[in-house]
Amino acid sequence: MSVRESILFCRFTSPWGSRTARVRAWDEREAVEVFREELAEEDLRENGTIEILGPAGHQPLRAPFDPHAAT
Q1: In terms of residue numbers, what domain contains 42?
Q2: Angle CA(53)–CA(54)–CA(55) in degrees, nearest 5?
């Protein structure tokens, strides 16, 4: 069986707004890490929630985002 990277849709939500992106990753957990790195590179300074939207019918994976946490 061949497993390939997928394009996953990510959403960051905070009390001040939201932003979305597409990332290439092997799975939802890796997508969280890739998206966290992208947000950190943008120097995002607000806490919020990351959601990775998987295939239709699957629950999104949610993870906290804290810009002050060690990466």
Answers
A1: 7-65
A2: 130
On whether residue 43 sits in a domain, the answer given is yes
Give the total number of structural domains in the chain. 1
Q: Can you tell me which residue has the tokens 């998987």?
A: 54
Sorted by sequence, the CB contacts under 8 Å of residue 54 that are 6+ apart come out as 8, 28, 60, 61
What is the sign of the dihedral through the CA atoms of 35, 38, 43 and 44?
negative
- pLDDT of 15-62, one tens digit each? 999 999 999 998 889 999 999 999 999 888 899 999 998 666 667 789
Cα-only R_g, the chain: 12
What tokens appear for 70 in the block?
């060690």
